[in-house]
Amino acid sequence: MKEELLKGLTKEQIAKVRECKNHEELLAMAKEEGIELTDEQLTAISGGGICQSTPNFTCPMCNSSKIKSRYVESNMSTWYSNDCQECGFHWNVDA
Q1: CA–CA gap between residue 59 and residue 61 (Å, rounded)
Q2: Cα R_g (the chain), whole angstroms
Q3: What ranges make up the beta strands (E) of 16-86?
Q4: pLDDT for 15-45, tens place per residue?
Q5: How far apart are CA 49 and CA 33, in angstroms?
Q6: C-alpha span between 59 and 50 (Å, rounded)
Q7: What one-character DSSP code corresponds to residue 76?
Q8: Nearest to 1 by CA among 71, 68, 84
């Protein structure tokens, strides 16, 4: 996760951000908390940079859509760990 996008938030608010499953939840949480989002934060949200629902990944090696993907909750810089069921390629998706 890009830490500069979390500047100005309390630890509690950052924890709530990390619990969001999609950008709609994130926007609702920001409204509830009275957080005014910067242009950079809004751009990141609309592009999935802060919070994103589970995407449809394709393997960057073989372009297969048979991907086993898991959300990585414990890592601030990595959102998803992926394994291609076709070619076995493993990659992470960074926040």
Answers
A1: 5
A2: 15
A3: 67-71, 78-84
A4: 888 887 777 788 888 888 888 877 677 766 6
A5: 20
A6: 22
A7: S
A8: 71
Query: Which tokens belong to 14?
Result: 């950052």
Residue 85 structure tokens? 């069921």
Record the tokens describing residue 71, joined without a space.
Answer: 């959300």
How many CB atoms are closer than 10 A to CB 82? 18
DSSP secondary structure string for all residues of 1-28: --GGGGTT--HHHHHHHHH--SHHHHHH
18: number of Cβ within 10 Å: 16
pLDDT in tens, 29-85: 888 888 887 767 776 665 544 444 446 678 889 999 888 877 665 555 556 788 899
Does the pTM exceed 0.90?
no
